[in-house]
Amino acid sequence: MKLVGQIRLPTDPILQQAAIQTGLLGPETVGLTLGHSIFITQGNLTPRVLSHECRHVYQYELGGSIAAFLPVYLQQIASVCYYDAPLEQDARANERDTA
Ligand SMILES: [Zn+2]
Description:
Layout: E1 2-4, H1 13-21, E2 31-34, E3 37-41, H2 47-63, H3 66-84, H4 86-93
Parallel strand pairs: 1-3
Antiparallel strand pairs: 2-3
Helix pairs in contact: 2-3, 2-4, 3-4
Bound molecules: zinc ion.
Zinc ion (ZN) is lined by residues 52, 56, 88, 91.
């Protein structure tokens, strides 16, 4: 797990617009998980955020690899937006408020 100053948007304008429109990345984004790598913005490391991102690690493991998981995840985000994506609903359902 790495604390970062901010989670940067892609520099490509089309990807940047897609990331913002789907709700994947925005000013309020506090965490991002890529495989076993969890990035959380400084000041936002809480049990809830960490447990949410750890659930994404679990989802990546079920998927088998980043290459297998990401297209499924991004397809969900693109079709129903970030909040309603089933993998996000699953991550939220497994958040914990205490360590
Ligand atoms: Zn999430």
